User: Fold these one by one.
Assistant:
Number 1:
Amino acid sequence: MPTDATRAAADAATEDTRPGATTEDTGSAAATGPGPDRGAAVLALEHLSWSVGGAVIVDDITMDVGEGEFVALIGPNGAGKTSLFNLVTGLTRPTSGTIRLAGTDVTRQAPHRRARLGMGRTFQTSSVFADLGVGANVGLAVQARTGESRRFWRRAAPDGGPEVAAVLDLVRLSHRAGALAGDLSHGDKRKLELALLLARRPRLILLDEPMAGVSAGEIGDLTTVIRDVHREQGCTVLMVEHHMEVLLDMADRLAVMHHGALLAFTDPDSAMADPEVQAAYLGDGA
Ligand SMILES: Nc1ncnc2c1ncn2[C@@H]1O[C@H](COP(=O)(O)OP(=O)(O)OP(=O)(O)O)[C@@H](O)[C@H]1O
């Protein structure tokens, strides 16, 4: 039986999302368009390339992330994962190719425009306000979405209100609502960053190595939170991560990059069994 808090959390965290992503194999490294059981593409990359000083960093990537799907972007060090993320979020502009967010061509749009259209990203470095409380951090993110800053400061409930409570519940940080964000452990900071994203109700969540810097003891807990956000809330996720044991259990599909290109784009078991993928990892000593 869902509680008011979980219902509010679902409302806070999902918008135009679809539960029940599939694990169907596309059988292709260049999967274009959603498969028959996959939701409509929230993100579609078409022949995306980025070159710097003659070096091809991202090489003709074509892939999609379906509504409600969890895609993990993996590859050896220097494969181009962060560069691809930067293209997707608009921090860098592609040399060629197209980026569509829910059908809209955002290739030439600035990062804040993409964010307004529903693209939410966490960074490898922490983006929380360390001197503010955990609840206040989430409250600011809610404000940023609703544009009710003055009203918030005049009439805010001491605990930030039901939406803040619901989002904190979703990431299992309710017990830390009153703590200073700067006092959180690395794992809890990552949860708070996720909460800040969820408060903005993105239609696509981009996670850039959420396990980086997180202690071994906290990885399981953080994994559970991310998995719940995806599975229970139906959020669409594209995540870069090096911890394979985390991804195999969580991702619907793995997009494997190597030397800037997409080597495989399929379900985790098939990707890991692919001789080319194995060679790429062994060859780079990863
Ligand atoms: N602005 C840039 N100018 C020149 N080369 C760049 C630039 N940004 C990235 N590179 C190069 O592009 C390649 C891919 O880098 P990128 O950081 O995207 O890889 P990655 O897969 O995210 O690596 P890691 O797993 O180590 O974070 C690297 O060889 C890097 O040195």
Number 2:
Amino acid sequence: MSMSTSTSTPSRATRAPAVEARGLVKTYPGEVTALNGMDVTVEAGTVFGLLGPNGAGKSTTVKILTTLARPDSGSATVAGHDVLRHPDRVRRAIGVVAQNSGADPVATGRENLRLQGRLHGMKGTGLDRRVDELLERFTLTEAARRPVKGYSGGMRRRLDVALGLVHRPEVLFLDEPTTGLDPEARTAMWDEIGRLAGEDGLTILLTTHYLEEADRLAERVAIVDRGRVVVSGTPDALKGELRGDAVHVELRTALGEAGRTLLDGALGGLPGVHEVLCEGRRVSVRADDGAAAVPVLLGALERAGAAVATATVARPSLDDVYLRYAGRRYAEAGTGSLALAGGAR
Ligand SMILES: Nc1ncnc2c1ncn2[C@@H]1O[C@H](COP(=O)(O)OP(=O)(O)OP(=O)(O)O)[C@@H](O)[C@H]1O
């Protein structure tokens, strides 16, 4: 048996996790529990999505991992460095793109990038080359001499990501990278994030409240609710755990207690139908064959005295995963500002 003497970058399987957080707890004044035992592991060279509604604790997690806040308890390492013991080492290894732009609106795109590089100790032709490279990569070369205040939302966001990358970090944190962007700019940003991870071997931890964003970009997602992870895995595995199709029925009026009991009785024994969830006017059912289940389901609902407004059949989405693990629909948990365009994959 020969021993390998290769010094090349270790494969994903053998590299230590780029981010590892265990049992993070954070309480803000006024007894607000932002984090309640948060665990996160991100393998090096992958894109990881922290998905959750507004207020779930995503930003607080990012603040702790980027050394901007201290947990009340728990521990975390980023790029192998302990966030509490060696915050300076962590800061050198990471790039952070916060929710609000860090760019100076009066300075030009190029000036912003140069300043950011100098803050990281870069100078001379090395810095010039890096700035040109990033302007090119984020299609900002033509706008490089213009003040940032004249940039579109998409251009500003691209500049924000470029600013986070100037010093070639190992781990990039993107806090809600596409919030507020129009659909076209959002798609362009998704393509860019995908390229960054694929080509540059960067580790990316992104937070999002867009289900579609997590589904499309992240190799693994953790669904966060009330300060902790309720479930994690690959988007496909999470959806795959939900057997069959999702059938959603909207009733004209919410069912009372008696109606629910009747409904349980009527749907409980139907072949191929599992997991009946009833919330207000909405009934969600998982069925082996969604299309075949609809007429049977409608008949059962009629017998239970429920008037149906609409019925839809879909492949399971991350919304259904969230419903199962958090016990309520995703849109109802946050502000409802969701982008579900494109639907389930
Ligand atoms: N500085 C603070 N002081 C008091 N409470 C805070 C503070 N920052 C966050 N919180 C509260 O902690 C909880 C978690 O907030 P956090 O910003 O981490 O959630 P989030 O999932 O990132 O949501 P969002 O998408 O709105 O940023 C919320 O209830 C929030 O109101």
Number 3:
Amino acid sequence: MTTAYALELTGVRKVYGSGDGAVTALDGVSAGVARGTFTAVMGPSGSGKSTFLHCAAGLDRPTSGRVLLGGSEIGRLKERELTELRRTRIGFVFQAYNLLPSLNVLQNITLPLRLAGRKPDPQWLREVVDGVGIANRLEHRPAELSGGQQQRVAIARALVTRPEVVLADEPTGALDTRTGRQVLDLLRAVVEQMGQTVLMVTHDPVAASAAHGVLFLADGKLAGHLPHPTPERVAERMTHLGEW
Ligand SMILES: Nc1ncnc2c1ncn2[C@@H]1O[C@H](COP(=O)(O)OP(=O)(O)OP(=O)(O)O)[C@@H](O)[C@H]1O
């Protein structure tokens, strides 16, 4: 089934614990991430950003509500099917890169395919490797690369399966401003030139402004959407939402 949304959350509630200790991390969130867009998620600490990402990735099961990935509901999948879905239909980019130190760059990039028992499509692999600008480092180990280069490798790894969506959790959090900017430009290019879909959680208004639009969360609820964000407008919205 095709849909305009790569990812769609409908009425997603997530309650951790029970009784007096229950915490409502997400309180009926409905949001769609259109295919071929770059979306940032922002909100004060504890507003539910990580929970949103985890529910989107099938790492957390919503207490109620639905999560659709490429039009299929993931809430009903068995654990094994979810693992397979995470391997092949979702790309992950983390703050700490999470590359395997004993594998070289090419092996790191193609690892999700090997885990899924699939062979790389040589043309796509070439496009991904060239796109992230790491073609001359394929034989190197992660420890021989700069932080920015390691994050480029992680982005290539996230793209190698041609996922439905790339989920990025503070992808520039460990990088200096200039390198962070380059990684954000790359994520934008991944969307605009390679036709991929990226959803990024960030605390940084500058990072958020690299996206096409920003979803704001506050107290587990959707608190607005800002198209064509600028750092100033994002920061202003965040100030209205309370403490960062
Ligand atoms: N496993 C858990 N068990 C209990 N409560 C949890 C759990 N995970 C998150 N929470 C609570 O749910 C709420 C939302 O947390 P979440 O981590 O999604 O927020 P966040 O916006 O990502 O915060 P931050 O910006 O500080 O990382 C918080 O009150 C948090 O304490």
